[in-house]
């Protein structure tokens, strides 16, 4: 599972149990499943879907009170997914997407408030 956090690290980060596209059996590694985490920071609601074996990550962010969409990412070539902060009042990740000529980094804060920084290198 090179490049992605372990299942227990994602449980700690998102502070919720995931739902799975297919129920993982004891013999199926978390790497080969698609897990969806639904959680909130009080201001924004998040739906994060991770499929490590396909290098796919989707993140939908909506305003909690108005239900308006704030951000939607549908990434297909995430080769690196790192937890950069996992504390009670602060949680964030760093993802890297790569193609033949460019590398893109996406930094996302979930707590205390949503923030997204997208860079192309």
UniProtKB/TrEMBL annotation:
It comes from the Bacteria. This is Uncharacterized protein. It comes from Lysinibacillus parviboronicapiens.
